[in-house]
Amino acid sequence: MKSINKDVLAGYNAGIEKNRLHVDMGLIEFERTKELLIEHLPKPPAVLYDIGGGYGEYAWWLSSLGYEVHLFDISETNIEMSSSLEAQYSGITLHSAEVADARSIERPDESADAILFMGPLYHITEKNERISALSECYRLLKPSGYLFSATITRFATLLWATTVYGIKNRLLEDDEFMKMVNRELMDGEHIKPQNRSYRGMGCSHFHSPAELESELAAAGFSDTVIHGILGGAWLAPNIDEIWKNEKSREAIMRSVRLLDTQKDILGLSTHLLAISKK
CA–CA separation, 21 vs 58, rounded Å? Predict the structure, then answer.
């Protein structure tokens, strides 16, 4: 079993995930994902596994709704940081939080009503190991249980660099950066150039919608629906300011809902969420 890229793990152990879902496009991602979870999850107190769940933003929120939530993440720092969210949820605790590799979770067969898998697929770079990780989810899920799998699209880096070109950086003029982007568009492999200004995510894998659906099917999942959870709304300027106004926030979310299953434009979202059934 290949280890996760050391630069990726170092980034998470440095706490890069902290507050990501509370600024800019993360606000849209968090809100739309919560809507879809509420729509598909069984009623509390169902058992949920949040595998690769970072420091537990979704895990704590779902615990507050009455679910029995078990948080797993490969980063020791993320698991340690998860306790910092307890103050936001008075009287609520996670059922468990432990360091674990998504490809091997020490829980019995058919022990989860649903699984959140919203991180591991872009950090497991070998296809056979991604399918192995998805097969582990299949093992853990009860019959008819739901799996929520998140990925980054192959267009994400180029789209982002275009939106900030001349404002935050000029990466589109960097030949090494563009070589990296060309590779992503070709086969999904995201390999950060050495000694460049682009910080990136280390070595990762970015999916096309068809590839994501194919890998889920190879692990045994059916009835998959893929959502572009950001739609085109992440392109709106000043999302942090927009979010402060209830009417503006709802306008943004309405646009996301209109686009999120339109196959012709899924890649524009940059983030995908596949909902599959065992």
Answer: 10
Task: Retrieve residue 253's tokens.
Answer: 């979310």
The phi and psi torsions of 38 (rounded to 5 degrees) equal: -60, -35
Domain extent for 73: 6-153+207-277
Distance CA 272, CA 278 (A): 19
Mapped onto helix, strand or coil, the DSSP state of residue 199 is: coil
- The model's pTM: 0.94
Domain boundary among 183, 205, 227: 205
Run means of pLDDT, 10 residues per run, the chain, 278 residues: 63 70 96 98 98 95 98 92 90 95 97 96 93 98 98 96 93 94 96 80 90 98 96 95 97 97 94 97
**How many distinct structural domains can be found in the chain?**
2
Same domain, 188 and 137: no
Asked if residue 186 and residue 147 are part of one domain, the reply reads no
Interatomic CA distance for residues 245 and 104, integer angstroms: 43
Three-state SS for 63? Answer: helix
